[in-house]
Amino acid sequence: MAGASMNDIKSRIKSVTGTMQITKAMELVATSKLRRARENVDKSRPFHEIISAALNGIMSSDSFGEVVWTEQSECKKPLYIVIAGDRGLAGGFNTNIFRLTTSHSAGREAKYLPIGKKSLEHYRRRDADIVCDRHGYVSELSVGACLDIADEVCHGFAEGRFDSVFVVYTKFVSMISQVPVCEQLLPLKKTETVSGSGVEPIYVGGSAEDIVSKIMPEYIGGVLNCAICESLAAESAARRTAMNAANKNASEIIDTLVLKYNRARQAVITQEITEIVSGSEAL
Amino acid sequence: MKKFHIEIVTPDGLCYDDDVESLLIRTDDGDVEILAGHTDLLASIDTGRARILKDGKSVFASVSGGFLSVTGGKVRVCSITFEFADEIDVNRAKRAKERAEIALKAAKDERDERIAKAKIARATSRIHVGNMK
User: Distance (Å, rounded) from C-alpha A48 to C-alpha B82?
Assistant: First the structure.
């Protein structure tokens, strides 16, 4: 009987060791991916910052008229661009994104543009109103693809298919902190007037309003690209943390199992000795 | 010649950050050349060739999309692509152009047509700039 339980423990140790090998490998992969993803985050940020600053600059001028992009609405028909991962096993990475989206979209007639396999699966399963289901793999999205999405989003917004656009993604704050955020892309919020030189710049290629409309897809594409880079970095960081915790748990389990195994082994030996001794006493 | 600072960014990162003598770029209303001390300006960029003059030497690049802004002496180019002549693979651009031409013929709606036309313009500009190195 003791032998059977020893075998059980042995096979459990073996299986946990196997799991630990996998989680260890995944941690290493996530770490190396994270390094590249962080470089991409740093690269994608300047474009976003400069184009946002320029847009704010144009719109804060007093003579800037209303354009379709700045018409405020009640956000009754919002579009959510939900960026999640392609894979699970990253702790609460994917669930946190969906939870934030659900709480934000509550009571609204929301449409979704899922990016990433997990996101697409999530909204398909819920029969949500999906605008475009072509972006199943977030890690393969190029800048060109971001621009395609942006083009489609701008088109839909101008046509009035949705009255506001939000992007939901996970911001990469640090190695241990990733925060899901929901940012409003459209309509553009007019920021406070920045006191510039007071002199209107020369506009080449149309009026200020024309230029804003022209660079709108590029602005949104840039923001999306930035969000995707952040999300990828956050995913790797989340997976690294999750796999690190899994490693720790596995080694804890192995420790207790080894202890149990040794105890069981000792019990068998003790029992054998008792049997021999009592046997010889009987003689 | 007096120099001024320019910054060029694309979604792939900051690709040029230096003091130059002149920047010539194709806007939707034609070529615009920026020299030091230029007044504030905002222009949307068309697909085409750009020229940067530094220390008397010209460098050419193929640019598409985005805008050029001059604010208080700060010159910034925010474009989708900005490729210097020596980074361009002319043969690849030629193949891309052929593909885009086929796509244009097969275009079903206005959107496909617009995308194909933009691709042709980009490829043509790349071939043009690539041959200047």
Answer: 16
| Residue B16 at interface with chain A, using a CB cutoff of 8 Å | no
The domain segmentation of chain A, as residue ranges, is 2-23+243-275, 28-191+205-241
Q: Which of B43, B70, B78 sits opposite A47 (nearest CB)?
A: B78
For domain A2-23+243-275, the question of CATH label 1.10.287.80 is answered with yes
Nearest-CB residue to B39 (from A57, A202, A206)? A202
Decide which of 3.30.70.100, 3.40.190.10, 3.40.640.10, 3.40.1380.10 is the CATH code for A28-191+205-241. 3.40.1380.10
Instruction: State how far residue A218 is from chain B, nearest Cα, in angstroms.
Output: 7
DSSP track, chain B? ---EEEEEEETTEEEEEEEESEEEEEETTEEEEEETTPPPEEEEBPSEEEEEEETTEEEEEEEESSEEEEETTEEEEE-SEEEEGGG--HHHHHHHHHHHHHHHHH--SHHHHHHHHHHHHHHHHHHHHHTT-
The bridge status of strand B74-78 relative to strand B67-71 is antiparallel
A193 DSSP 8-state letter: P
ipTM value, please give it.
Answer: 0.82
Does one domain contain both B77 and B99?
Answer: no
Check if B10 contacts A (Cβ < 8 Å): yes
A58 close to B (CB below 8 A): yes
Question: Could you tell me if B113 and B81 lie in one domain?
Answer: no
Of A50, A58, A197, the CB nearest to B78: A50
pLDDT tens, position by position, for chain A (283 residues)? Answer: 455 688 999 999 999 999 999 999 999 999 999 999 999 999 888 888 888 888 887 877 767 777 888 877 777 889 999 999 998 888 889 999 999 999 998 888 899 999 999 999 999 999 888 888 888 888 888 888 898 899 889 988 988 888 899 999 999 998 888 999 999 988 887 665 555 555 677 888 788 888 888 888 889 998 999 999 999 999 999 999 999 999 999 999 999 999 999 999 999 999 999 999 999 988 7
Q: Give yes or no: residues B111 and B67 share one domain.
A: no
Q: What is the pTM of this model?
A: 0.85
CB contact under 8 A, A221 and B7: no
Q: Which domain holds residue B9?
A: 4-86
Inform me whether the C-beta atom of residue A202 falls under 8 Å from chain B C-beta atoms.
Answer: yes
B80 and B28 in a common domain: yes
Question: Does residue B75 share a domain with residue B34?
Answer: yes
